[in-house]
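Tokens as discussed.
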């Protein structure tokens, strides 16, 4: 059974609900609407490091956004950075699936120094947009791109 600590963390323009579990390294951050509805379902085993699950604005006990701009990926990246800094974490691994995979890639592009790693499970329909961005390693235009 995963033991979760729940915190409310102040960020610019709101409060975010955050669940923490585990200890040690690496610190893995995830942010998905599922966390808010079923935090007890977070699959995290002791010995894997530390988990930080950030509930997006408007879900769970996180405050609602002030307007449509508070629900963008750009704002979510800003919120994740605020949580990382407030928790005093130097760098973390971001783990995202589905839309969270896109969020992770955008986070890596916006603030690569915040991340020690990136786990991307499924990026779905946003893949073509990310593949067109030369800053993304999945783009044929990136200097380190390697086709399968």
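Sequence:
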């Amino acid at each position: 059974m995963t033991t979760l600590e729940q915190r409310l963390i102040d960020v610019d323009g709101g409060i975010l609900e955050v669940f923490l579990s585990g200890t040690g390294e690496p610190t893995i951050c995830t942010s998905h609407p599922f966390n808010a509805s079923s935090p007890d379902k977070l699959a995290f085993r002791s010995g894997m490091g530390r988990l930080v699950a950030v509930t997006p604005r408007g879900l769970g006990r996180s405050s609602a956004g002030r307007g449509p701009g508070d629900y963008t990926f750009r704002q979510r990246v800003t919120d994740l950075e605020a949580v990382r800094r407030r928790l005093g974490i130097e760098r973390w691994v971001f783990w995202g699936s589905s839309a969270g995979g896109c969020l992770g890639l955008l986070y890596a592009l916006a603030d690569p120094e915040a991340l020690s790693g990136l786990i991307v499970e499924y990026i779905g329909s946003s893949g073509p947009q990310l593949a067109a961005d030369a800053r993304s390693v999945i783009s044929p235009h990136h200097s380190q791109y390697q086709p399968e």
